[in-house]
């Protein structure tokens, strides 16, 4: 295991997003906005902040919108330029800093998160890398979650997985880890299981969609059969590496995670970002209060 700094980040974005139909009939769920940025942009910003310069998107043949988003939009740029809308022009012209490149890989069959990560094998090669699930949006005023994890990974020279505590009745929605206890924010992982029933869960520490993985994960994925939900699970490949002695730490990052793969998570994230927004905070607060009052939810006397 190497303690090299991560440079490449993988974004599995080939899911169907059925929870958000009909919106996701034409708009990939990663393109759903929180205020004025799509979810994918938040994840990409976090990866770049952590030091990544190669962004690998695992897409399917229907997801042109993600590639288009990071591509040039000449007509729009011309229109904005002519209209003198220079701030917007800058946002459209440079969605990524100039040192960052994008790679798009097609996942031909939807065989699960593990399979999606395996699709990045040739692009990643023999170095540690990050995986970010853009549905998991992490709000934070300080350093991003992946930066915190990448720093930790460099220190320990092993894999790092983001975790948060969840109520026991929710374990069947997550990968769950068992650790040897924690020192500060990190604890060495002993076992990991995908979506266990509450009575079978080894703990209530749930995996959040941020991983720093060693390149050895690809060999493990290649020999991983279908697991929970009939899919090739990343969790199972990590579990097999743990069983053969690989070092992975669970990391309780600083920040609040919103599960934007669910309706309520997307709403909560929008509320949080609006209330923390320079210009929208005040009008958002007023509007929320008004909605509560008008719906008779609060009693103002
Ligand atoms: C995936 C992982 C799971 C993890 C979760 C975090 O599940 O398989 O281990 O806890 O992301 O969001 P999914 O939510 O894609 O079913």
Automatic annotation (TrEMBL):
InterPro entries: GalU_uridylyltTrfase_bac/arc, NTP_transferase_dom, Nucleotide-diphossugar_trans
Tagged with keyword GTP-binding: no
Coiled coil feature spans: none
Keyword Nucleotidyltransferase (UniProt): yes
GO terms for MF: UTP:glucose-1-phosphate uridylyltransferase activity
Catalytic activity: alpha-D-glucose 1-phosphate + UTP + H(+) = UDP-alpha-D-glucose + diphosphate
GO biological process, one term: UDP-alpha-D-glucose metabolic process
Enzyme class at the top of the EC tree: transferase
Entry EC no(s): 2.7.7.9
Organism superkingdom: Bacteria
Protein name per its UniProtKB record: UTP--glucose-1-phosphate uridylyltransferase
Family: Belongs to the UDPGP type 2 family.
Job description of the protein: May play a role in stationary phase survival.
